[in-house]
């Protein structure tokens, strides 16, 4: 164990400030990226060119030309005349960069002006494209884009109605005016439902039940272990049979609910991606091979949008208080998941400073609350 003089021991983790680095963030769905089309994103306060080359391969680099700071996404992707490789051409002076971020040509140079242009680099980011999702790995040190030391999650229940078709059937996105920490805590809060989400088709606002749920640690997070849904959640009844659900949270900001109804499945994935310190993008995605779920997907899409709007409205109300930087009182057991998130975040950051494996601080537990 490090003593109190080590950097790790003195690492200060402030709730509502800072982002986790050296980890995988949700960037986009595979279908969002089109070959040859340059697209600008802002992720963790950094401008990112996230796109596909002309051959369909996804890539990501910093969306700033190092010459005069024009966004590279305002340019175009072309074939390098020398070898036919795909390069991004800046719209300002025509500098070109390959998809690894290496400068390939500077048109303004004359034949008698020797210059090793390949020494000029644009920061590039590791990405992974799997299960129809594009994940991006942003390192803590921008000068050293190290190879990732772990992989994005393989999600259970990414299924479709037809063989080899895993396209999601519902996708809803909304930007919350919130730091990701507050968005995450709101996402895992089990007690706000009867007050914020009062729909006749979801649950009764008047009928609240005592809940007892078992939790276990999972890779970089924890799960509410598989159980029968609460009887006051009407939407589950539409699926018929005897649904059993497991809800998992994983760093840095991923929550998914995997429902099994016999041999059929529904997966609801919520990804939180910081745009900057004060804005977080929430993306909700649903997959299913359940025939009835796919049939009534428009109703579930309406519900997902309504939930996001209600949560967004509550975030705006919460911001009225947070602007005064008040001390927050968290209680057991309803706020234990929020405390776990803080512990997980702290352990992630300290393990990186100490250059050691992550040790999950969450222990198996039984939590009780009323909602």
Descriptive tags:
371 residues, eight-stranded antiparallel beta sheet, alpha+beta
Task: Explain how this protein is built.
The chain has helices spanning 180-188, 193-196, 234-237, 291-295, 297-322, 336-354; strands at 23-29, 40-43, 46-52, 58-62, 76-79, 86-89, 96-98, 103-105, 126-130, 133-138, 170-176, 210-218, 221-227, 244-250, 254-261, 264-276, 279-288, 365-370. It has 371 residues and is of the alpha+beta class. The strands form four sheets. An eight-stranded antiparallel sheet has the order 11-17-16-15-14-13-12-18. A hairpin with a 6-residue loop joins strand 6 and strand 7 (96-98). The model is unreliable at 1-5 (pLDDT under 50).
SSE topology:
Blueprint lengths: L22 E7 L10 E4 L2 E7 L5 E5 L13 E4 L6 E4 L6 E3 L4 E3 L20 E5 L2 E6 L31 E7 L3 H9 L4 H4 L13 E9 L2 E7 L6 H4 L6 E7 L3 E8 L2 E13 L2 E10 L2 H5 L1 H26 L13 H19 L10 E6 L1
Percent of residues in beta strands: 25-35%
Uncertain spans: 1-5
What structural category arises from helix and sheet content? alpha+beta
The gyration radius over C-alpha positions equals 23 Å
Helical run tally: 6
Strand order of the largest sheet: 11-17-16-15-14-13-12-18
Largest sheet: 8 strands, antiparallel
Distance from N terminus to C terminus (CA atoms, Å) equals 41 Å
Q: Specify the helix fraction band.
A: 10-25%
* Tertiary shape: globular
Q: Which sequence of SSEs, written as H and E, runs from N to C?
A: EEEEEEEEEEEHHEEHEEEEHHHE
Number of strands: 18
Average pLDDT metric: 89
